[in-house]
Write a structure and sequence with these properties.
alpha+beta, Alpha-Beta Plaits, 2 domains, four-stranded antiparallel beta sheet
Length: 306
């Protein structure tokens, strides 16, 4: 199915304003992170305690938050984790890595007071220490850097180094913008969000590779044309595939975001943002880098003494 058959859109005509917009967006995200004193890490990285409760009747997250507010635990994270048709289950996550039995009893008492007609049981209490949280942060960063390094090597072998550099910079652009948006929205960075970032890396790379593969083919077929025209032609030739893939992926993600429950909502939001930004970056970040690099190489070639 082709939605944009024989399209001839001059995408690269606005590449510099688009790159400027990306730079300003990244700068805004970094500024927010600095003003907030860093990223808002979840207990996965800072350490904390998770308490899982099962209720006999349906219960909302707001009702549990109201109960926790009464015992000065309003900074706790409350998530509904039961699947459709199962008994209602709530996960309470607090940033205290050590929680006493008395504190657990206080939580139970506060919930019983607010919900006297809804009996519940404590299913599990899990703690993550600060040291383990710090190790998880290091491992998450290492996993991301290894992924980017592997991509750089793979694309350098399959294409050329400049193609690899453009792809990695586009991926970096996508992840940084998503992190910045999460900081602006006050969202926590958890292990699930790190998994979402790695998913974004894969999606963005796939989108960029499709365009680059067509660019490589057209460089052989259109030797008399300039690099900018070759890249514009390549983007137009792959535009239908890009739009169809993006729209179908977004449809599934939006349904998941609406009906998937609060446990995976932030994860889904991160991927939605990543899919949109990844599609944009393959056209207005990765491709322009090739054009600017080609223009610079051509200027240097002309300056060389004959």
């Amino acid at each position: 199915m082709e939605w944009f058959k024989d399209s001839n859109i001059n995408f690269q005509q606005v590449r510099r304003p688009a790159m400027m917009l990306s730079a300003l967006t990244i700068a805004a995200g970094i500024l927010v992170i600095i003003l907030q004193g860093g990223l808002n890490y979840s207990i996965d990285f800072l350490g904390g305690t998770a308490i899982q409760l099962r209720f006999e009747k349906p219960v909302s997250e707001g009702e549990i938050r109201a109960a926790l507010t009464q015992i000065d635990m309003n900074d706790s994270e409350v998530l509904r984790i039961a699947a459709l048709g199962e008994d209602p289950e709530i996960l309470i996550r607090t940033k205290k890595s050590e929680i006493s039995e008395a504190s657990v009893e206080n939580i139970k008492a506060a919930i019983r007071t607010n919900l006297p007609d809804n009996p519940f049981e404590v299913r599990a209490i899990d703690a993550v220490g600060p040291k383990m949280g710090s190790e998880l942060r290091t491992q998450a960063l290492l996993a991301t850097l290894i992924a980017l390094g592997g991509i750089l090597i793979y694309i350098s072998i399959r294409f050329e180094f400049i193609f690899a550099l453009a792809a990695v910079l586009a991926i970096f652009h996508d992840v940084v913008i998503t992190i910045g948006l999460f900081s602006i929205l006050g969202k926590e960075i958890s292990l699930a969000i790190i998994a979402a970032f790695l998913t974004i890396v894969g999606y963005s790379l796939n989108d960029t590779i499709v365009v680059f593969d067509r660019v490589r083919e057209n460089l052989k077929r259109m030797r008399a044309k300039g690099l900018e025209e070759v890249i514009n032609t390549s983007i137009n030739q792959t535009l239908s595939r890009t739009i169809v893939t993006g729209v179908t992926t977004l449809l599934a993600l939006v349904v998941l975001y609406i009906f998937g429950g609060s446990v995976i909502r932030d994860f889904t939001l991160a991927i939605i943002v990543g899919v949109v930004i990844g599609t944009y970056s393959s056209i207005y970040i990765a491709s322009p880098i090739l054009i600017e690099w080609g223009a610079r190489a051509e200027k240097l070639q002309k300056r060389k003494p004959k």
